[in-house]
Specification:
By secondary structure, the protein is mainly beta. It is built from no helices and eleven strands. The strands form two sheets. Strands 2, 4, 5, 6, 9, 10 and 11 form a seven-stranded mixed β-sheet that branches. A four-stranded antiparallel β-sheet has the order 1-3-8-7, with no helix packed on it. Strand 7 and strand 8 form a beta hairpin. The N and C termini lie far apart (about 40 Å).
Length: about 110
Amino acid sequence: QVQLQESGPGLVKPSQTLSLTCTVSGGSITTHYYYWTWIRQSPGKGLEWMGAIHYDGSTYYNPSLAGRTSISRDTSKNHVFLQMTSLTPEDTAMYYCTWAMSLWGQGTQVTVSS
């Protein structure tokens, strides 16, 4: 049974870079046709798809975030990573890792504040 667990710093200062980790257990991130996404939800707003990494390592990004967002992986540890640069308070949100949009981690809260 696939399980996802997000982890990250919690509090980040404006202009800094955010780094989040999604630890995947119960399944390999390189299994054919699997893909992994990052989604966030800001206070009072809907869900925002940030990007995805597929089983073959190919990546796809929300065009509105593409310049600041990078998704990568460590296949030896079964981790998927999200990096986001130039943070502002508007990036304050709950960040989720998902497997094919069908299975979600519990999320990790990120607050951008000085």
